[in-house]
Each structure stands twice: as C-alpha cells, then as structure tokens.
Amino acid sequence: MVTLSLLSLSLLSLLGVRGEVASNFDNCKVSFFKNTPVSGLNIALPTPVEPNTQGLKNPAQCLSAYKAVSPAYICQRNSNQYYFATLYDRARRIPLYSAYEMDIKGVPNRPGEIVYYEPQLVHPGLTPNQMNIKGSKSEIKKYNQNNGCNESSTQYQQKYKLGWSQALDDNFGKYDRGHLNAAGHHGNRDAAEATMTHTNVAPQDGTMNKGPWNQYEKKLKDVLSVGCSKMYVVTGVVPSGTWVDQNQRVNVPSHYWNAYCCTDNNGKPLKSGGALGPNTAQDGVTEYNTSVTALETVLRGLLSVGNNFNIFNGC
Ligand SMILES: *[C@@H]1O[C@H](CO)[C@@H](O)[C@H](O)[C@H]1NC(C)=O
Ligand SMILES: *[C@@H]1O[C@H](CO)[C@@H](O)[C@H](O)[C@H]1NC(C)=O
Q: Keywords assigned by UniProt (predicted)?
C-alpha cells in the first residue's frame, strides 16, 4: 500500500499532473482573449454546508466539497487534454460562464449525450479528468475506502456526494440542459465531446434552447467564418431567484448571454459582439447581436456587478 501510493505520488509529480479545480484559470488561460479571464464577476454563492453531521465519522475528510471555495475554477480536461474554462457556482450548481476558442473551420459534429461530471468538485484529490457517472462513482468509492468514509452514512454515499458537489442528470426538471460552450462550435470530435459535461450546462427553457439560441449559435459560426483567424467566445448566465426544485439545488438562470471576439493571425481584434436572451419561451426583449460594451452595461445591471466587470481585455 505504502509503496503503491509513494509510486503514484512520484508518477504524478513526474507527469506534472495538477488538479483542474484550482483557485484560478492558470492552466487554461489560453481559452481567453489575451489570456485574461472575465473580470469583476464576484457573484457566486458560498458552497453549501451539510446541515446534518450528527454521528458522522470523519466529516472533514469524508464530506463532499468540505469547506471548498465557491466559485470553482475548472479547467475542463478530458483524457489529459485541456479544452476550455468554466467558472462554476457550487451553491447554485450551475456554471456562471464557460470560455473557449471556437473552431470556425470545423464541421459541427455533435456527439450524443451529456455524460460527464467533475470528480474534483467532490474532493480536490480525485482525478483531474472529466468522468462519466460510473467513473465518478468509482473515484468516490476508492476515496471512501482509503479514507475510512463508511457508506452506511447517507452523506458519504457515492451519488449523494456527487450530487452535493454538482447537478446530476435528473436535476433539471422540465428544463433542457443548455450548453454554455456549444458542442457545435467545435470541429474536432474530442473538443465537442468535452462540452458534454454537467458543469457546462444550466437549466434552459426548451423553446429558447432549440429556437433562437440555437439559431444564434449557428449564425455565429457562419458570420465569423469570414476573415477571422481566432475566435474567443464567452457564454454565461444570469442566476435568478428561481430554482428547479424546492430544495434549491439547481438554479434556473433568468438569462443566457454570449460575447465573441475574433482576431487576425497576429491576435489583433477584428470583430466583436454579443447577445442576451431571457430564459423563457418568448424572446420579445432578446437582443441578438449587440456590441460587447452595450452587453456589459446591461449585464452589470442584471448581475449587480460593478464597472470592473469586463468580458474581454479590450476587444
Ligand atoms: C460501516 O458501518 C456499518 C454500520 O454501522 C458497519 O456494520 C460496517 O462494519 C462498517 N464498515 C466498515 C468498513 O467499517
Ligand atoms: C451583427 O451585425 C453586424 C452589422 O449589422 C453584422 O455585420 C454581423 O454579421 C452581425 N453578427 C451576427 C453574429 O449576427
């Protein structure tokens, strides 16, 4: 046992493997224009604290997301490759935004289902890769066994712990699981597949998701395939007082927003713009195709954030 963990420790340091839920986006800052994350978005709620710890053995070690900081900075990583960045609100169990480089040349190649979870939201020491439900549970099981977390306590059970740290497949009620980083914005199949994670989706009205938002995502691709060398995209949500369920596990955003910045091959900005739409079946007041500056002004009001809220570092 000792030999094994020593071996894996030295292997880990040899490979330079670091946790992907970190206190910043340093490992995936290339997903942002000029390597600069969105600034001034300090709206995440604190990580929920398990209310019932009576009789629990070893809670500090065994409870999911124990004293974890919210938001979580996720460098989305699949099969040891980074794909994009997500700012994750642990209390609302939704991403506040995902930032990515869009593949303007690729052919949309949407793989099937949203299957992945982020084991490091449960315990920081678990695998830094996205994992499906089976893999995530097996990570938690291993952790429980190694740390004396007896699964006869409900709070230590695999599904409970996973669901404490992030939204589960069956937590979306009548809503669609709306992508922030759009699968269709990637030509490379692996990059599209990496968007299929529960930390990249939020409850979205089905009419909006399949209607105007989908059209906007497609149009973005057509419009920008001309002249752009690189395309940086940030897609976010505006949290609301509405939740999918009574227990207030998963928040229903009031709006979805998007901003893009396209550059020439020297990184010089060529075009930029954005969109904002209410998360409802009606899109009466939706602004599709607005300037980034106008979008930021409206969002400062909706999100109650200050003038230091900026999506791009000057695009
Ligand atoms: C876990 O708890 C149950 C019930 O208290 C007990 O029967 C079992 O032996 C415990 N398992 C371990 C591995 O300690
Ligand atoms: C936004 O509007 C401008 C000016 O009308 C147009 O050139 C551009 O293609 C539009 N962009 C999108 C994404 O619709």
A: Signal
Give yes or no for residue 5 having a pLDDT over 50: no
- Calculate how far, in angstroms, residue 29's C-alpha sits from the geometric centre of ligand 2: 27
**DSSP assignment letter at 270:** E
56, 152, 154: which to mutate for ligand 1, most atoms within 8 A of CB?
152
Distance, in Å, from the CA atom of 256 to the CA atom of 238, rounded to the nearest integer, reads 6
Ligand 2 center–CA 291 separation, angstroms: 10
> What gap in Å lies between CA 157 and CA 309, rounded to an integer?
39
Map residue 5 onto helix, strand or coil.
helix
With cut-offs at 50, 70 and 90, classify the pLDDT of residue 188.
confident
Does ligand 2 come within 6 angstroms of the Cβ of 273?
A: yes
Reduced to 3 states, what is the DSSP secondary structure of residue 158?
A: helix
Phi and psi angles of residue 40, each rounded to the nearest 5 degrees, phi first: 70, 20
For ligand 2, say whether the CB of 274 is within 6 Å of any of its atoms. Answer: no
pLDDT digits (tens, 9 = 90+) for 64-103: 999 999 999 999 999 889 999 999 999 999 999 999 999 9
Sequence letter at residue 224: L
Superfamily of segment(s) 17-54+68-114+175-303: Extracellular Endonuclease, subunit A (3.40.570.10)
| pTM listed for this prediction | 0.91
* Rounded-to-integer distance, Cα 211 and Cα 301, Å: 26
Instruction: Parse the chain into domains and list their residue ranges.
Output: 17-54+68-114+175-303
Mind listing the pLDDT tens digit for each residue in 137-186?
A: 999 999 999 999 999 999 999 999 999 999 999 999 999 999 999 999 99
